[in-house]
Amino acid sequence: MVLVDHHAKRMGRAAHLEARPAFDPDIALAAHLLGWKPSLTVEEGIAHALAWYERRDTVLQRRP
Q1: Which pTM value belongs to this model?
Q2: Looking at the domain assignment, is residue 46 inside a domain?
Q3: Within a domain: residue 11?
Q4: HSE-up of residue 44 (Cα within 13 Å, Cβ side)
Q5: What pLDDT shows up at residue 42?
Q6: Domain limits at 43?
Q7: Residue 64 maps to a domain
Q8: What is the pLDDT of residues 4-57, one digit of tens each?
Q9: Given pLDDT bands bounded at 50, 70 and 90, which one contains residue 1?
């Protein structure tokens, strides 16, 4: 629900949800196997993704 709440707040509207099984990625496993670790918080990642979508929509609307 944290992701949904952040997304809804950023978009300025309520989210419509469907019940799905929980998914909790194992970051420790990714770090061990791939040497990867997240460089952004969840909130930062959502903000970056939504900003990209907003820029993308603006650019696409300008196309002839």
Answers
A1: 0.47
A2: yes
A3: no
A4: 4
A5: 84
A6: 25-64
A7: yes
A8: 777 788 778 887 778 888 777 788 888 899 998 889 988 899 899 989 988 887
A9: low
Task: With respect to residue 1, please indicate whether it lies within any of the assigned structural domains.
Answer: no
- The answer to whether 38 and 27 are in contact (CB under 8 A) is yes
Q: Which residue has the higher pLDDT, 58 or 64?
A: 58
Number of domains in the chain: 1
Which amino acid makes up residue 6?
A: H
pLDDT at res. 25: 77
Tokens of 2: 């944290």
What's the DSSP call for residue 15?
P
Distance CA 40, CA 48 (A): 9
CA distances from 51 to 5, 10, 11, 62 (A): 17, 10, 10, 17
**Which pair of tokens denotes residue 5?**
């709440």
Q: Where are the beta strands (DSSP E) in the chain?
A: none
Structure tokens at 17: 């949800």
